[in-house]
């Protein structure tokens, strides 16, 4: 029997962030990962920190995203000092492209409410966009420029969280599949796996799209929606644009090594791992539509991953009733990278018995009952 303070089930960016923030507090943490650390959507993500570009309306999620985005500059420095890993935080902003007048009007209004809430979001017409990013198509209407949004290397961030957690005393066990959760009246007593049995004061379920199946082992309903996403990467012949370009149909993220990530499809309810020709055709077509010169790029590779969504669009973060020592952190959908620090910090605070008001709207109990 392995005895720990906390067992975290799931070794993606969320699980590793939780382990890191718990280990910073001195907790004895074990992370159980069925495959390899960060082997699913955490490493497949483009790494956009889209606290504003992804938000169509104000609310608790947009506020949480902005808070988490603000943590990244200090986090990047902290992780680099601890691990020597540069998470490649690139703060050049995002252009949210409008192809039509209707899109332009909607984005202009989005900019208004974001500015009213303290954000920076400026409407640029076509000429202004092309004066700073001349490779962008001359067929756009304009774009909402969001200088605060940025991007990181998702794989480096996950690796930095996991390595930092280990340096602080956490244990990460790969190729370890959880087979059962044994519960008493109001608490999880044991976590059983094909690598042994673990006993802990607290258990965190952070297994992404597979969290619902694990909750089901306890007879609990956790309505996580799997959403498959397909992406690809190309090398342009020259650097074509500096800012992330986000449009209907695709986004283009220029990474530190010169490649451009083109993403991403959305296929709800799909757990398959392959990439379809249809996805490649749609993504390449939209990418060339947005930046015509990308047609001469060198194709590198395509990949897919399954992201954990939810029926109401909000993540599940918090204590999962009726068990007083069971916590959930999943359902982040396209914002797992962005929300990883605020989720990790928040779960660590909850386990320490602290109140975390910012996370109350995301309680896993809000949708857990039929």
Automatic annotation (TrEMBL):
Keyword terms, alphabetized: Oxidoreductase, Thiamine biosynthesis
Transmembrane segments: none
Annotated pathway: Cofactor biosynthesis; thiamine diphosphate biosynthesis
Keyword Oxidoreductase in annotation: yes
EC number, UniProt record: 1.4.3.19
Top-level taxonomic group: Bacteria
MF-aspect GO terms: flavin adenine dinucleotide binding; glycine oxidase activity
BP GO terms, sorted: thiamine biosynthetic process; thiamine diphosphate biosynthetic process
Reaction(s) catalysed (UniProt annotation): glycine + O2 + H2O = glyoxylate + H2O2 + NH4(+)
Domain FAD dependent oxidoreductase: 5-350
GO cellular component: cytoplasm
UniProt-recorded name of the protein: glycine oxidase
